[in-house]
Amino acid sequence: MNPIELSQQQFEQHFGYHASHTVFAPGRVNIIGEHTDYNDGFVMPCAIDYGMAVSFTPREDSIWRVYAIDIQETDAFDLKKPIPQSEDKWKNYVRGVVKFMQEKHPEFIHGADLAMTSNVPMSSGLSSSAALEIAIGQTCQCLGKLDISLTDIALIGQKAENLFVGANCGNMDQLTSALGQKDHFIMIDCRSLAITPTPVPQGYAIAIINSNVKHDLVTGEYNSRRQECEQAAQFFGVKALRDVSLEQFNAQGEALKAESELAYKRAKHVVTENQRVLDAVTALKAGDMVKLGELMAQSHDSMRDDFEITIPEIDYLVELAQVAIGKNGGARMTGGGFGGCVVCLVPNEKVDQLKTLIAENYQKQTGIAETFYLCTASDGVHVI
Ligand code: GLA
């Protein structure tokens, strides 16, 4: 059963009456542009056809009763009272979005019964958290008939994650879940928030391979990368690494290296990755899938050698995928790193070959079974 039907069915079973509305917010996969969003740079993800469904019915009062179908847990809170943080992480995504929605729209005090379910694998770099935040943000908009843009819903989701959940993420995931476009990659300028959609090339599939490795240290590693990037930006005397050109980096890089080797390596990744995103848009527009594949490979190498966020299992998956795909199209790690998924742009006729090569080797080499997904570039959040 898909998440939309499941949320509707389980709503009825749990609350004993029909849900009047359902909202669906997608996860995302990033094609290129990793750890560039919080450096005010460029990213090129797409929303996917996996996501979070929330079925709900407005209530007369200001109470939210939330049923998390997948873990069979519930939460309840009153929108007319201060919304406290919970010990349970999942509750803070919901409460956080409502809290920051109220901060922007104090008139929002509308109660509801809600049931929610997701088919985005958790902690895999496919933005299960953003899908939840955006689904809840859109639910608030519907309930209160709030005059709020999708961009602002995304920024509220990010704020909830930063300040209420305590994860210091950038804005890519929430913007993509809110503003994804069917059959398109969206290049986002994470400073201006401008979006340039580019069609997914015809004849190519988007395949995602989950390494099924989950790393405990992700948050700490993520935050230390952010700090190292800030240190590098300070060295160059700019607001964010977005403002450092390749020329400037080449001219002053050695001096930064003398000061901090780590900051140098992190900056090298970010400065070159920003350029790769821009080059990827050009390659896609020209239909140059060989170039796109090269850029994806360089992005992966840069994440492995300079940003140091890949792990052997992921490097191995990427090597296998690159062999199966050949020159047209490419593969790289996607998401925050330290496990998670590999994204592939693969000619349709090579999908089976890719799947088989990985099935025959990955588990044998690593002792872990992968999960293989084919997905399509999808629209952002919508009311069903
Ligand atoms: C996570 C964060 C994003 C982004 C990526 C890395 O998904 O939530 O904001 O920084 O990592 O590109």
Proportion of helical residues: 40-55%
Mean pLDDT over the full residue set: 97
Give a short account of the largest sheet.
8 strands, mixed
Low-pLDDT windows of residues: none
Helix/strand order, N-terminal first = HEEEEHEHHHEEEHHHHHEEHEE
Are any ligands bound, and if so which? Answer: alpha-D-galactopyranose
% residues in beta strands: 15-25%
Q: What is the rounded distance between the termini? A: 16 Å
| Continuous helix count | 11
User: What structural category do the secondary elements indicate?
Assistant: alpha+beta
Rough outline: globular
| Total strands | 12
**Gyration radius, rounded:** 21 Å
Strand-helix topology:
Blueprint: H1 3-15, E1 21-32, E2 42-58, E3 63-68, E4 73-78, H2 89-104, E5 112-118, H3 128-144, H4 150-165, H5 172-179, E6 184-189, E7 195-199, E8 204-210, H6 218-236, H7 246-259, H8 261-285, H9 289-305, H10 312-325, E9 330-334, E10 341-347, H11 351-366, E11 371-375, E12 382-383
Parallel strand pairs: 3-5
Antiparallel strand pairs: 1-2, 1-12, 2-5, 2-6, 3-4, 6-7, 8-10, 8-11, 9-10
Helix pairs in contact: 2-3, 2-4, 3-4, 3-5, 4-5, 6-8, 7-8, 8-9, 10-11
The structure holds alpha-D-galactopyranose.
Short description:
The chain is an alpha+beta fold and 384 residues long. It has helices spanning 3-15, 89-104, 128-144, 150-165, 172-179, 218-236, 246-259, 261-285, 289-305, 312-325, 351-366; strands at 21-32, 42-58, 63-68, 73-78, 112-118, 184-189, 195-199, 204-210, 330-334, 341-347, 371-375, 382-383.
